[in-house]
Amino acid sequence: MRKITIITVILLALFTANVYAQIPNSGFEIWTGNEPSGWDNLNSLTSTVFIYTCTKGSPGNPGSYYLNLTTKSVPLVGIVPGIALSGLLNKTTFQPKSGFAYNQRPTALTGNWQYMAAAATDQGFIAVAFTKWNTITNSRDTIGTTYYALPGMVMSWASFNIPITYTKPSNPDTCLIILSASGISTGVANSYLYVDNLGFSFTASVNPNNKPENSMKIYPNPVTENMLIEIPDISNAYSFSYKIINSYGQIVQSSKNFTKDNIGTSALSSGFYQIIIESKEKQYVSKFIKQ
Predict the structure, then answer these.
(1) I need a surface site. Which of 39, 172, 190, 266 has the fewest CB within 10 A?
(2) Model's pTM, two decimal places?
(3) Are 143 and 107 a contacting pair, CB within 8 Å?
């Protein structure tokens, strides 16, 4: 598995100390056909058969338009996820190539959404990464990230407030936002994600309705070879399932019948992950870093 990094092929040349850019087309009011200004998508893979995974929805919340991402089954191509990225997207790997100039440290990504997974096996997500070019290593350092696995169903417009975690003290020079109706490798046709009114928050408050249940503890974190799991209201002998998801929504490790309190992580590449553990009654979600 490839090391999890934000791949940048277009260097966003010479940032100055006062560089500051808002999220491009954050209200999704500017369109050319089915192409939202400032956001790349996978329409180029499907438009020849008049199928689009990214379209303009109306009316917006607020405004005239919103972003409509819908995963499609495309003849001779297969399942194509409804995905949009604030920059450039690799149409072969569905992974990011570049983002937009940004040098602040917001505490959360905010906006309005509707969402539905077409099957329980699908898992849409929203991910944000802040990076900075390192002139010594000639590579990008990750300054902060967030990955949010979308809840099963949000059938009417609702607001979200997703916190961002920082791992380095410096300000970034680039931001990348990924919105996806499906997991990259688990897409199911007709899963959809509607998004409007994106923004960054600089306050410490987070909408509790959008926070996953997190009585689960992971240690050590960052992890190396093994990850110890502690959930107060589940016995270690109790059977549960788990899945580990990387920052692009791919399930990279899972088990459907697991009874131990530790999980081997030696096969994982370095990067940011989310683990979802499910018992018969509850779902527990937490993030961790693999060194």
Answers:
(1) 266
(2) 0.66
(3) no
Cα-based angle 77, 82, 88 (whole degrees, multiple of 5): 95
Q: What is the DSSP letter of 143?
A: E
Do residues 247 and 268 make contact, with C-beta atoms less than 8 angstroms apart? no
Higher per-residue pLDDT: 22 or 33: 33
Instruction: Please tell me the predicted confidence (pLDDT) of residue 118.
Output: 92
How is the chain classified by DSSP, letter by letter?
A: --------SS------TT---PPTTTT---EETTEETT-EESHHHHGGGT--SEEEESS-SSSS-EEEEE-EEETTTEEE--EEESSEE-TTT--EEE-EE-----SEEEEEEEEE-SSTT---EEEEEEEEEETTTTEEEEEEEEEEEPPSEEEEEEEEEEE-EESSSS--SEEEEEEESS-TTT--TT-EEEEEEEEEE-SS---GGGSPP---EEESSSBSSEEEEE-TTS-TTS-EEEEEEETTS-EEEEEEEE--SEEE-TTSPSEEEEEEEE-SS-EEEEEEEE-
